[in-house]
Amino acid sequence: MNKFFKVMLIFLTFFISILLVQFTMNYINSEKNDKVGEVKVQLSPEELQTQTTIAITDIILNQLLENVILNIDFKPHKDQQDVSLYLQGREFVSEDTLLKDSYNILKDVSKNETIRDFTFKWYMLVKNKNTEILTLSFSQDTISQVDSLSYKQLKKLATHYEKHEALN
Known about the structure:
By secondary structure, the protein is α+β, with helices and mostly antiparallel strands. It has helices at 2-38, 45-63, 95-109, 140-144, 154-157, and strands at 68-77, 80-88, 115-126, 129-138, 160-163. Strands 1-2-3-4-5 form a 5-stranded mixed sheet. Helix 3 (95-109) links the parallel strand 2 and strand 3. Helix 2 (45-63) crosses helix 3. The radius of gyration is 29 Å and the shape is rod-shaped.
């Protein structure tokens, strides 16, 4: 019986050792996997700008078939950027229509986490001259909350709001 007890004790010690090694290996591997998951792909400013340009162009094409993109400006800030979107409005358009169009675009822009601040600059022909008729700028906080807002609130929530007298 004494010999049987010794064999069982050795077997139990060996089994516990294997379990400890297995547990330690799993723990170390899980820490490595967590670190790999936390690493973000760093995009160069040019790649970030290209990615954002494509996203905004797709949004505009889906939202506003009758408006034309005049320009898109970018100001990089680390892994985010400020975007200014210059749009050509129709000849006879109201402020309410431009606010609705801006709201619809902003809802889609809110899904892009690389945008820090967003500015709309709407242009329209006034006395045969292309004139900036409405400017709206929004902070990241407002952009992230746009789904819970109404287009009528955009004027109040804009960090910068400027309306030309020709816009009724």
